[in-house]
Amino acid sequence: MSGGSSESSPLSGQNSLSSLSISKDNELSSESGCLSIVVLGASGDLAKKKTFPALFHLFQQGFLQSGEVHIFGYARSNLSDDGLRERIRGYLKGASDEHLSQFLQLVKYVSGSYDRVEGFELLNKAISEYETSKNNDSGSYRRLFYLALPPSVYPSVCKMIRSYCMSPSSHTGWTRVIVEKPFGKDLNTAEELSAELGQLFQEEQLYRIDHYLGKELVQNLLVLRFANRLFLPLWNRDNIANVQIVFKEDFGTEGRGGYFDQYGIIRDIIQNHLLQVFCLVAMEKPVSLKPEHIRDEKVKVLQSVEPIKHEEVVIGQYDGYKDDPTVPDDSNTPTFASVVLRVHNERWEGVPFILKAGKALNSRKAEIRVQFKDAPGDIFRCKKQGRNEFVIRLQPSEAMYMKLTVKKPGLEMATEQSELDLSYGMRYNGVKIPEAYERLILDTIRGDQQHFVRRDELRAAWEIFTPLLHDIDGGKLRSVPYKPGTRGPQEADELSRRMGYVQTHGYVWVPPTLSKV
Ligand SMILES: NC(=O)C1=CN([C@@H]2O[C@H](COP(=O)(O)OP(=O)(O)OC[C@H]3O[C@@H](n4cnc5c(N)ncnc54)[C@H](OP(=O)(O)O)[C@@H]3O)[C@@H](O)[C@H]2O)C=CC1
Ligand SMILES: O=C1O[C@H](COP(=O)(O)O)[C@@H](O)[C@H](O)[C@H]1O
Question: What CA–CA distances, in Å, run from 392 to 246, 381, 403?
Answer without folding.
Answer: 11, 28, 11
